[in-house]
Amino acid sequence: MSNGPGRKVIPWSGLAAVALHWSSADTPAGKDYSLEVCPVEPADPDDPVLGAFVKDDEPFRPDLPRLRYRFKANYPYRQDLIAAVRQYAQDLWAGETEREPGYLGRPVGEAQPERG
């Protein structure tokens, strides 16, 4: 992964599960996609490279943590990402799940809008 401050590799052995989530969206494809990546060790929202991708969300399996990495997976790389997981780490693949619109959200630690 590359993000402004640097690069970082998440090895397959450091992952507990990977899934594709999607929702209806006002985009040319009509959907938003994300690759949900659950690390074995806790995701660090203060990491200078990966912190922007850390999300706090309900686990999609009971044995997974709330904090995980969420990478937008819209065209053109979605199918390549899925193929890589299925080829190199089939046992990590947790499938595809439809989510509510707007689920992509903001990273942990980023200011959330006040609700009033």
Describe what is shown at a glance.
By secondary structure, the protein is mainly beta.
Query: By helix and strand content, what is the structural category?
Result: mainly beta
Q: Numbering strands along the chain, what is their spatial order in the largest sheet?
A: 5-6-4-3-7
Head-to-tail CA distance between termini:
37 Å
> C-alpha Rg, in Å?
14 Å
Extract low-pLDDT stretches: 111-116
Q: Which word captures the global form?
A: globular
Total of DSSP H or I helical runs spanning 4+ residues = 1
User: Which sheet architecture does the biggest sheet show?
Assistant: 5 strands, mixed
How many strand segments? 7
Percent of residues in beta strands: 25-35%
Share of residues in helices = under 10%
- The sequence of SSEs as H and E is EEEEEEHE
Determine the mean pLDDT.
84
